[in-house]
Amino acid sequence: MNKIFPMIIFFILLSKNLFGQIEVMILSENVGTEIDEHENRFYRVFPEEKGLIDAQILRVDDQKYRIDIVKDVDGKVTKVRRYLEQDKYDELKAYVDQQPPLTEEAMTAMYSGMDFLRAEKIINEIPKPQYVILRHSMNKKVNGTLFKVDQNILYVQTSTAIEKVSLNDLDRMAYRPSIGNFDNLRPYTFLLTGLSGFLMASVYNSQRPTTYNDYGIPRNDLNVYRQIFGTVIGLIFSGEVFDALSTLLTPTETIILSEAEYEKENY
């Protein structure tokens, strides 16, 4: 009994030395003891930690801190640890202390520009087919008609081939969220395409030798026939011309679809 009692005292003192120094730190009144994903995005506490769910800072000793981070990596919850020296901790604390409080209005404004968080929804809801400009994977650029999205793969018809671009590799996209209403221009489009067909037929007639019938009379009826035929062809394509014109007159919108590109653009 006399030997056991000193051993108990020894283990109690040892436990205090080992565990007593670990203390949960409040980095700033702006974030409290636990830093969630919204606070991390707003204050940029750990901007390099992608998919952060929450984080906690603990004091290990007088000059060292441990960061326990819970993050989402490819759909799996993962726990990682990072360490900070005292000077880095002081810099981080001073930086966060200088920032304004995270209000509902500030959070709404912050997320309004983060299109990469709803990239899949945007891609699946935009009107198709339509002409788009994509930038992906190491600044590669693709111009063409986006005609299908299947399992987050974008199919784009270019002038030479069908390009397949993964949504995960996409950085930016210029597109039209909707096609504007330009029905007031439709009659002018019909007139323009019909007149174009008529003029092209007239040019064709002027380059053709005159045709005579058996009595030596010029076949002017053939010229009229070609002009009517050209006008009809022009009117047939007026719908496609109107659709193309409506698309060209609708302003494009460029959105950022990757977090890395967002970071580069804003910070």
Structure, explained:
The chain is α+β, with helices and mostly antiparallel strands and 267 residues long. It folds into three domains: 4-112, no CATH class; 117-179, SH3 type barrels (Roll); 183-249, no CATH class. Helix content is 41%, strand content 27%. The strands form two sheets. The chain has a six-stranded antiparallel β-sheet. Strands 1, 2, 3, 4 and 5 form a five-stranded antiparallel β-sheet that branches. Helix 6 packs antiparallel against helix 7 (220-236).
Label the overall shape.
rod-shaped
Estimated helix fraction: 40-55%
Question: How many distinct folded domains?
Answer: 3
Order of helices and strands: HEEHEEEHHHEEEEEHHHEH
How far apart lie the N and C ends?
66 Å
Contiguous low-pLDDT stretches (5 residues minimum) are 8-20
Describe the structure concisely.
The protein has 267 residues and is α+β, with helices and mostly antiparallel strands. Helices cover 41% and strands 27% of the residues.
Helices and strands in order:
Blueprint: H1 4-19, E1 23-24, E2 34-36, H2 37-43, E3 52-61, E4 64-73, E5 76-85, H3 86-97, H4 104-112, H5 119-125, E6 130-136, E7 140-150, E8 153-157, E9 162-166, E10 170-175, H6 186-207, H7 220-236, H8 238-249, E11 253-256, H9 259-266
Antiparallel strand pairs: 1-3, 2-3, 3-4, 4-5, 6-7, 6-10, 7-8, 8-9, 10-11
Helix pairs in contact: 6-7, 6-8
Features:
5-stranded antiparallel beta sheet; 6-stranded antiparallel beta sheet; 267 residues; SH3 type barrels; single chain; alpha+beta
